[in-house]
Amino acid sequence: MKLFKPIILTDSIEIKTTPEKIWEFFINLEKNYRSWHPQDHVEFRWTKGKPMESGSGWYGKEIVRGKVFELKGTVGEVIPNRKIVFKYSFPVSFVAPWFEWSIEPKSSISVFTARSYLRAGEFYLKYFKKEMEPKLEMHYHHVKEEGENLKKILESL
User: Fold this and answer.
1) CB 36 within 8 A of CB 148
2) Is the pTM of this model over 0.85?
3) How many domains, in total, are found in the chain?
């Protein structure tokens, strides 16, 4: 039995815009955060360094299905206009080490993909599946809404 079995939650959406416009949206995430997901997003701020740069610190606050989540971490890998990795701080990093956003240009559109990386032991998956499934579904639903909202915002510009 593996102690940790990786789970990768992935959602992609095609957006009629350029990678540069998506990147610009995220460079201005402090300003755009609440409008990106008005029902859930409360606050986002860069706490150290410059937006979207490796080593920069970040803080986010969300309310998902009535539960408040305050998250913080640092930026890992950055490929401008293509990819950014957000690393969570401990203790969240123990279960969810990072999430990433990638942008793939395809002729007149861009494919935006959000991936969340989770660790879950097979024991946990086997014996706590009932508790885990709704949380995974809640997370997936939230990320899917973020992609749909990003598409609406950027295609209306």
Assistant:
1) no
2) yes
3) 1
Q: How confident is the model at residue 18 (pLDDT cuts 50, 70, 90)?
A: very high
Contact 56, 78 (CB under 8 A): no
Instruction: Give the residue from 97, 121, 101, 118 showing the smallest Cα distance to 5.
Output: 121
How confident is residue 68, by pLDDT bands cut at 50, 70 and 90?
A: very high
Q: What is the DSSP string of 15-49?
A: ESS-HHHHHHHHHTHHHHHHHHSTTTEEEEEEEES
CATH number of the domain that 95 lies in?
A: 3.30.530.20
How far apart, in whole angstroms, are the C-alpha atoms of residue 112 and residue 149?
Answer: 12
Domain around 80: 5-155
| pLDDT at res. 119 | 82
Q: What is the pLDDT of residue 33?
A: 98
